[in-house]
Fold:
Amino acid sequence: MLTRTSLSVLSAALFCIPVFSDAGEWSGYVSGEFRAFANSPADPRQHDNNFSLSIQPEYYTDWDNGRQSFTIVPFVRWDENDNERSHADIRELTWLKAADTWELRAGIRKVFWGVTESQHLVDIINQTDLVEATDGEEKLGQPMINLALIRDWGTLDLFVLPGFRERTFPGEKGRLRFSPRIDTEQTIYESDDKEQHIDYAARWAHYLGDWDIGLSYFSGTSRDPRFGFGQDNKGQPVLIPIYDIIEQWGLDLQATLGDWLWKFEAINRSGQVDRSGQDKSYTALTAGFEYTFIGIADSNADLGVISEVLYDERGDDALTPFADDILLASRLTLNDEQSTEFLLGMIFDSDDAARLLTLESSRRFGDNWRITLEGQAFINIPNVNTELLVGVRRDSYLQLEIARYF
Amino acid sequence: MHNFSLNIKHIGLFALLGLPLLAMAETPEEKGLAIAIEADKRDTGWQDQTASLEMVLRNRHGQESKRNIRTKTLEVDGDGDKALSIFDSPRDIKGTAFLSYTHALVPDEQWLYLPALKRVKRISSNNKSGPFMGSEFSYEDLSSQEVEKYSYKYIRTEEIDGREAFVIERKPAYKYSGYTRLTTWMDTEMYQPLKIEFYDRKKALLKTLTYSGYQQYEGQFWRPASMSVVNHLTKKSTDLHWKDYRFKTGLTDRDFDRNSLKRAR
Structure:
């Protein structure tokens, strides 16, 4: 799915490149991914095991003693079965100017805010590229002008965000999707400006000794849609994404105390209509820790133990399945030549027996290759229409990815 | 990053101790400390430094893998240095950047920038004894060597590879150190280390680090072209080859803040 915006941005970008081609450098990766599912699909139109290819080159050049730079990062994925997952995006197309007390960035970028592992409440600038990964870690590039003021009292980032990106969702044939499927042809916006609405955001970040703190504000189109029931042109039931105009305050804190990392994120959001149809402001938070056992069993390996509480005041009316949950996870870092890592985590729903098990592991081989094994298991997901995860209840999978970096 | 760039907090006291020839009744501890202070004094005033290095990791079968890293270091008055390391290879971690504000006895402050996630992570710095990038160097081997980090004892003066060296025994004052003791051969002219033997927490000889190809920069500062460490337990080794040392390039605190991490190249 190449959107018109990304096509025009892509052609503009390609037009720019020859200007800089003398000094710049290319890097990036090509990757092949194979997903194996534990069960046959819930919907017979959905596929079984799946193969997919992606490429993400990056071009970078700088001048003015490194004080100005230009970066472009296009991304393309081809998917064997799901037309919605075959897509392209401009992850980054940025001009940067850095001065002593400020930095100005204009173009398309990814910005990350926050500290916790289980979910990223505070992180709001970029839309989630949900077809890429179910954990919401992959993001679409966001058009922006960003001025950072760098002072003794911290860094103040100011953002103007023209142009909204819709969340991507797997198509009819895709796995790991909602049920019924989501029809992005019928998307509804609260604002009359629709995806042209201009959003604003600001963040102050600083550190004081062992403490890192961020305070953020966002006003504009919510990155999280709610859903209305409808029908597609074949008369099949579908979910229609609805994007409200919201205002959000966010706080993120991390205390780094010896082998302990204490983490806290909280948001207060107003304007977002919940699943019961009510528009009331709410608070949500993630709080927890990561403790690392260093050099376990006389080896170079470190073992981290992570626990986080996920809370959303709206409870069952929340748009997320993580309204009152607990994460328990363990991270094993071998600190070896191949940078071998494992992360195994489980999110427990405190209301019922639903569990979400996640595995992430990776290892380098040779100088330029990386192999990644990931998986998710959806356990005891109730087969009822009110359950947000009902669509993925048969989609537990293991994914093997081999990437060549250049 | 590896500089023996030490900071003098008590100039008066150190000046007194820094006159070993006058101190006839000097104990081995006093003489060891005096040499450390002299080394510190001689390597003060470089302001900032940039360099690039190739790290060659070799396993017990002789198989090699390489990393390319660029470093920027800022000398800080009255505290440990600030250092920024940028990884160019292996390619899967290209653009990863590591920022540390080093301190003598309290834990360093460290941040890691992960370019794929655009995420700056504050990381725990207790783990100074852990391996750096899977190599036989630990973080503490490569961080700035403040005088206060060790207690000292002068052992003897002897010749090593045709150079005269003070042999000094150091004991880490930092409680999270991976070592119980280090034996250092310090060149009597350059006041730079030629060889260090590291003894682990079980007091066994763990590894040996040798320095070679010293050159003098700015008419004052000696820097090695290569550093080679062999782990006697695992038989693995790591060589560091330094290139393009530059000093007084005009770097400031601004080049070592969390914003600079995100645009480090």
